[in-house]
Write a structure and sequence with these properties.
There is one protein chain. By secondary structure, the chain is mainly alpha-helical. It folds into 2 domains: 58 residues, Winged helix-like DNA-binding domain superfamily/Winged helix DNA-binding domain (Arc Repressor Mutant, subunit A, Orthogonal Bundle); 148 residues, Four Helix Bundle (Hemerythrin (Met), subunit A). Helix 4 crosses helix 6 and helix 4 crosses helix 7.
């Protein structure tokens, strides 16, 4: 599903395009079954429409819809971090804090900085979801995580292309604030830090992904 999603946001699969299972299976070198499953999942997060007698068609996703998705993410992530406080593994948090401090110290000039930032981002959000004590909430975050990470990766690629990694570095500081609040057992501080992090993402993703012509399949 990740490869399909990236092709949509990179414009290799364009808005309005009819997606043929056989062609996609050949393109990605897989059987028809995982393609069908991926299309159903993408329909569930609003990236494709499953239409009678037409199959899957790539949707046009507006900048407003990106904002709406991010607002839903904020509600889910803030509840997850609230519930995870005092449940979450402190050893895992200390390991994340150490890596985040290292990244905020060395900054974007370090080789492999972007990949390390991506990996710590994934670890933190996955750890919080897994520690929230609510199986339904964790499952919903997992379902939407592909979309969140596609937005992140495409916007980060825009930054890399411009040699401007400030937003990626800023996210490291935001993540560290969340981790430090969780380590201190300060539930409200952790929720506020998560809300600030998601709000900053809303502003950035809306600009980076909602610009006309910059990402095919998206309209403002």
């Amino acid at each position: 599903m990740d490869s399909l999603l990236r092709d949509v946001f990179h414009g290799r699969l364009r808005a309005g395009q009819h997606l043929v299972t056989r062609e996609l299976a050949d393109r990605f070198g897989v059987s028809h079954t995982p393609i069908r499953e991926a299309l159903i999942s993408l329909a569930g997060i609003g990236v494709v429409d499953l239409q009678p007698n037409r199959g899957a068609v790539v949707r046009r996703v507006s900048a407003r819809e990106i904002e709406e998705v991010c607002h839903v993410r904020r509600a889910l992530e803030c509840e997850a971090v609230r519930a995870a406080c005092d449940r979450i593994d402190p050893h895992a948090l200390h390991a994340l804090a150490e890596e985040l401090r290292r990244l905020t110290t060395v900054g974007p000039a370090e080789p492999q900085f972007v990949e390390a930032a991506r990996e710590t981002d994934n670890r933190l959000h996955d750890l919080i979801a897994a520690s929230c004590g609510n199986a339904f909430l964790a499952a919903e975050l997992s379902r939407l995580q592909f979309l969140f990470r596609a937005f992140r990766d495409i916007s980060w690629e825009h930054q890399e292309a411009r040699n401007d990694l400030r937003r990626i570095a800023e996210e490291g500081h935001e993540h560290l604030a969340i981790v430090e609040a969780l380590l201190a057992g300060k539930r409200q501080d952790a929720v506020k830090a998560m809300a600030r992090h998601i709000n900053a993402g809303i502003r950035y993703w809306s600009r980076a992904l909602g610009r006309p012509g910059e990402v095919a399949g998206l309209v403002s």
